Fold this protein.
Amino acid sequence: MNEHRQQAERARLGEAASPTSPWRLWGPYLAGRQWGTVREDYSAGGDAWRSFPFGHARARAYRWGEDGIAGICDVHGFLNLGLALWNGRDPILKERYFGLTNDEGNHGEDVKEHWWVTDGTPTHSWMQVVYRYPQAEFPYRELREMAVRAGRQAREPELSDTGVLEENRFFDVQVTYAKAAPTDICVELTATNHGPDPAPLHLLPQFWFRNTWAWGRDDRKPRLTASSRDGWRRITAEHGALGRYTLHVEGTPTLLVTDNETNEVELFGAEENPTRFTKDGIDRYVVRNDSTACQVTGPDDESAPGTKAAAWYSFDPVEPGESVTVRLRLVEGDGHVDAFGPTFQATVEDRLAEADAFHRTDLDPLRAKVVRRALAGLMWTKQHYRFRTREWLDGDPAQPAAPKSRQSPHARNAHWRHFDVADVISMPDEWEYPWFAAWDLAFHTVPFAMVDPAFAKEQLLLLCREWLMHPNGQLPAYEWEFGDVNPPVHAWAALQVFQIDPDRKFLAKVFHKLLLNFSWWVNRKDADGSYLFEGGFLGMDNIGPVNRSEPMLGQWRLEQSDATSWMAAYSLHLMRMALELARHDESYEDVATKFVEHFLSIAEASTRFGSGGRGIWDETDGFCYDVVSRRLPDGTVESQPVRVRSMVGLIPVLACAVLEPWVFEELPGFARRLEHLLARRPELGQFLSRRDGRVLLSLLDDGKLRRVLRRMLDEGEFLSPHGIRSLSAAHREGLEVHVADQEHRMGYEPGESRTPMFGGNSNWRGPVWFPTNALLVEALRTVESFHGGRFHVELPTRSQRHVTAGRAADELVRRLVSLFLPDHDGRRPADGKRIESTDSTLWREHVTFSEYFDGDTGEGLGATHQTGWTALVASLLTDRRQTGALGASIV
């Protein structure tokens, strides 16, 4: 039995290699937030937050997707099942998570709810989420007012600051999904009153179709029908593409049916609505006691067709410590003959046991819990993402004409009219970033490959497909501006996934696509062929003293250390891919030589960086900097380094790779070309080191690397108790930087951003970020693999303790994973001063994965459900390359 359970989920994965496989048909693909997204913004001014605010979401039909609490939908996003609640006090049904927009939040957008994804398996045969619902009226207005009063200098106010959670006056609602078969899903909702007094609770699981019919492009309308006949409560769904589904609901709830249509009378002052019932009908019936707002299905009755329905369970009251449970079963076809019979509980128990077996590990319980929770949250980031830019720009036939601003060549995403996606994509965050982001997604695929390599590979290939990638080879950055530039980490991620699951066909597919993307970088970001690159802000937002996304004034040009270093690393990643493919197909051998030559050309250019001939390397400081330069009227070039010690100067560390002996044995053509190149251009030899038949290619030689690492591993600069900071703490008191005839002041900010750049919701001026830390760990392991214990660094700097590069990587990993492990006080550093750090086990049992972490304390900041790239902690905890305890490596 145990062996069977261990293999059960892996067998399902074997059946689900394709994204269209039956086991992947249903999953957590329902968005956590659809309102306030670019794709729902049809305003002339392009202000997505104001165009579709939270207040509209309950009564206004979405164009491109749906959202809900702890919900699921089919892979096409047609049919949705989610949780709605009411505590008898809220002014509206709790149908979706609430948060503040960029304009409202004192540090950018910020969700003001508590929920945790607690478990899951890759095929979504088993999923659990816990949502914490206050018993007092939800403080919508108070949270907005608190953020205004706080200002940018103060912490973000949280739900707990309003007092509504005191004395544990909340319900924990555990939502469980267990698949008996790909289209037979058992659903259990268990709500527990943790407060000291009895409290009412209304649970309203909702079942609805995405509105596909109101836009004038497809008039076909699906049907939902509620029935209380034959002793069963059920809601039947019929859809032209999905077919027929039946949602069984246990007990005798009141069945409510309305339509997923906009209430134009209430929202926009129209004289009448196009349909009798509207999206907010269930809300109005339950909360406002409006008996005309929706259909009510009585005993032995059946409703007329609608497109949104709910089963209304009323528990008044729920006693302290008491739990109430609602069970549902979603089945393809006409339903199940014994929906809540023995097979229901057996399915729940079996799937839990199989999940336990699937996630079994030899890690200690605390670390195993972090890995399992991180992977569960990562799997929940998968959302159905539908967006057709051409239709969005032009508008829909049945809707008001698109504003003239949409026809401008400067309109948002106007140059991406080919973009046409309807796929499941892993999002950076369920609420704050409910749209794909290219470099986030690359990092997601590494921990995904641990449990679901097929999905990891599919995601990497998806961004390169012709309906996403621009015809010129650029990868779309994210919804707010597809044309922004993210670091080129796709090839690195592909190699990581390949190492976990060696699939040569996948490697060849993604390699061919990335050739197009590499060409885009060369043609668009190195237009003069100097091998120097200007990538813009490169995803690291406000890391510099100037906005790197905008042109500089006065003919000044910003020549970026990190953009050039990213491209050097990209060249090495593509070289490694080509070499691996060349082992079985000699036609790739010449391509590999192209990329090693490109790397060496970039490396050489970096030593005379910029049109002023100044390199990224600063001998005085022992660090790498951006350079600004301009050509003067007399033809001379003025240039100066931007002396800010930031992650920008650490990116050159990433540009390194080892050529193993098999390269020279199996690929003599590549070896001859490399030797010929070095004989003809001996100055390039400074970027190669040889040892025992192996070659290390590196942008920084050993001497420079040691000096950069001396700063990186200095606890007074980059090395924090919990990882590498994005800006040196040596700038803690602030510094003034003269850049391009202007004075700029900036400084180390360990926590939330105090600058309004990029909406004020991102901060690379001090916090610890997992993606760049993971890359630095990998670079140190590469150095270790070449030197084999012969390369030593002082750790921490000035400690007189010297360790190998491998042990330095281990120590960095130890500091990163310590964010999620209890310290000597029994508290997780990532919980910081938030309510999760209290002594209550109700809070401390839940691990929270944040967007980034305070550079001094490790407190989690930014998006609080950013399991995406922070799920890399699972990869770090299970990495078998660790070389042992730090102390053993002191020399």
